[in-house]
Design goal:
heterodimer, A: alpha+beta, 5-stranded mixed β-sheet, B: mainly alpha, elongated, membrane (chain A), mitochondrion (chain A), Cyt_c_oxidase_su2 (chain A)
Amino acid sequence: MATWSNLNLQDSSSPLMEQLNFFHDHSLLVLIMITILVAYLMIMLFFNKFTNRFLLHGQTIEIIWTILPTIVLMFIALPSLRLLYLLDEINSPTITLKTIGHQWYWKYEYSDFLNMEFESYMTNIKDLNNNSFRLLDVDNRIILPLNNQIRMLVSAADVLHSWTIPSLGIKVDATPGRLNQMNFFINRPGLFFGQCSEICGANHSFMPIVIESIPTKYFIKWVKNFNN
Amino acid sequence: MNLVEKFQKLSKRRSFKYGTPFLVLILGGSFALKEFTQLRYQYAQKKTIRPDELEAEGVKMKEPEEVTLEKVYEKVKEIDIDHWENIRGPRPWEETQQIKASN
């Protein structure tokens, strides 16, 4: 989860987020190298003693400094396109989770099972324990089985919201009158936090999302005990 | 054939003779490795939740054909999205309704 002073992406708990992390590191490296090169060139302008008052053109070097950046851009573009298509791959999900955004809470429904619906409100400040996360903890967490393809269907009932979990690399807009679909895969047990990402009124910052991922065996037990 | 001469001179240099195979191996190797590492995600057919497992525990799971995007959309279409109340937030000098109610 995000704590204060985090500058980087959160640790990934999904293979796609892992790939996004790698791509981020790779392109950031390229950008840092370019920045250092340009900064060096600009600083050396102060200390350079070479002067040529009659410089008009330099065809060779102009060709070089057009072709070389094109090659650098290919190094960024190819992994980017690969990732773009990887994110859109079709795989068969085992579980479907439907979420409807309201002002200012989320309502979840496990469409595969009968009558599994619940609402998820942020825990009030006065109800927090000493080990709870302020503004991130909810009363009912989404429980999901790990190592399963999960299909997410997102919509809203009043205004725009956005359902996101950064460590799984997902962000889906919840638009009233529209159903958006997204697939993801959790490969670690644990708690994953996210917050509503589309301004939706006074309590937009106070409708977080928490996923608790557990082994499939315990998930089945939880489903069985849900209606009791 | 200035280019050919240049290449022949270059291929005599030690840094080229040792450097190029090394770089090709390291960079190309990572591309080749990608083909192997993606096998895990490409062929993962094992579905960990099986309907018979759930029947054994006594949980009923709907058929996958019943939970398609289109069917869920039909259900979502029925949600009333037009009658919502615009709840005004408190101004900085005001107290929220909650605090007013609990006072």
